[in-house]
Amino acid sequence: MNTMTLWHISLPEFAALAFAALLVGFSKTAVSGANTVSLAIFAAVLPARASTGVLLPILIVGDILAVLTYRRHAHWPTLWRLFPAVAAGVVVGTVFLMWADDGIVRTSIGAILLMMAAVTVWRRRTAEKEDDPEAVTTRAGRVKARSYGVLGGFTTMVANAGGPVMSMYLLSAGFRKLGFLGTSAFFFLIVNVSKVPFSVGLGLIDGPSLLLDAALAAFVLPGALLGRWAVNRINQRLFERLVIAATVVGGVQLLIR
User: 135 φ, ψ to 5°?
Assistant: First the structure.
């Protein structure tokens, strides 16, 4: 019995998942947060609750490639400041998944996607206005880091959708392109690996899910290479508009499904 039969996946559905895996690689090395489109695709093809467990190892593969690419540009003081709040958010998200059924998870993912789209729009409008972003060492900066950390931990545990939250925080903290990519690469690698035991305990990662991951992981590398090539060439404003539009469509589709 092959993986597609095991999951009752048709060839077009597998192609959609493969494209989503390729987009994960691209988002990790070019436009962080673009994998919300991948999240919508996975949740549409697979059962919503199970999709979070299947997507997690794919994200980790992308994180490893991003760390290998931008490892010299991470800002560790920012990472250490975020991790305690993110851990709290992950725990809250785990408790939520313990009682939420597939319908609630699907609705939650749809709502989170729409919220992330709104957050991204707001971030794009305010990022250019913040000439002197709050330093993370100030009291206000620490409060902001904790707030974003908890929300990022919850959204990444429930829906693997912490990218837009962290993108907004890092940009508002004054990070430029390489520092942004290097810091977010280590952040998501550490956070996503820490989520694995929780996902295994919840039954979201098992033998069949890992078989599907093995079939899809090969598509992450070409996406990452494409992102590395495009990062200095891409019209980011246009791409972000496309990502926001696709995220909204995916969120609405999950809410009305």
Answer: -70, 145
Return the residue matching tokens 């192609």: 15
CB 124 within 8 A of CB 150: no
The separation between the first and the last C-alpha atoms of the chain, rounded to the nearest angstrom, is 29
The DSSP secondary structure of 196-223, one letter per residue, reads HHHHHHTTSS-HHHHHHHHHHHTTHHHH
* pLDDT, tens digit, 9 for 90 and up, residues 73-96: 888 988 888 889 999 999 998 898
Name the DSSP class of 218: T
33 three-class SS: coil
Phi-psi region of 69 (alpha: psi -120 to 50; beta: other; left: phi over 0): alpha
Token pair 């059924």 is found at 101
The token duo for 167 is: 């993108």
**pLDDT tens across 123-140, in order?**
667 655 544 444 555 666
pTM: 0.80
